[in-house]
Amino acid sequence: MLSRTAADIYWMARYLERAENLARMLDVSHSLALMPQDGRGDGLQELAMPLLITGTLDAYLERHGELDAGRLLHFFAVDADNPASIYNCLRAARGNAHAVRGRISADMWESVNATWLEMRGMSADELANNGVSHFCEWLKERVQLFHGATESTLMRANAYRFIRLGTFIERADNTLRLLDARHQLMGRDVPEESPAHVYYEWSALLRALSAFEAYATLYRGSPKMASVAELLLLRAEVPRSLRTCVTVLSQVLVELPSTGRPAQRMAAELEARLRFTSISEVLEAGLEDWITDYIEQLRQLGDAINSAYLETTPEPVA
Question: What was the pLDDT predicted at 120?
Fold first, then answer.
């Protein structure tokens, strides 16, 4: 496969996954901002979380001046001037999909194109009237429809492998950033004066990553920082966990040409690190420091994939 084609397929998948991840972030921050704050402020910290994770806080404040749920939704959903918006992610994904129509199935193309056309036709008034949750559910459903079409219709060749590479490296990065942001925002588990708030914050994170049911199956009692971190970082049973994502990346890279040996070796080492690490070791090192280090290693893996297989300069991960 030509590196230009591989790059288009890879970034198509990354932008679609990024759009879904942004929707998940918006949904959880909006839900928690509506909760009684128990003396913890007025919910502005929750509204600011997607801006902090994506590094767009200054850009938002420069244009809108203050945090507001409606403006934040517009900024992340349909603002064409925000490079990190879902609108621009879907536009980029559709452009990449159009460039490789001959390499993906008709069902996949129709899914991406229809999503973009709906997004492009969405007015600010319609967005405001329907609300955050409605928009986020629509977007998640559309991206999952694409993944269903991919699994059901695409030949298991290099195009399929590059889609999985793009999807899972973006997903791994998002899981780490969401966990890190929630941990920093909550600080330590101090549940005695507000156990309900702690419960809802960790539960909201688990729901954002579609892992609430998995947590209830694997652990007893209310969500706690250590068990949530273990689930999202180290449990192979959870589809959006870091370990699952890195395992898929390692498996896919082995199936690609040996020109990517540095990337293959790096992914295998990252997988082994997760396989043989316990949550107590992560917490002893400091969760925030551990996550920061792993985000950097994922960035290096992305650079190695780019050097081995793609002709474009690696794009920044928001």
Answer: 94
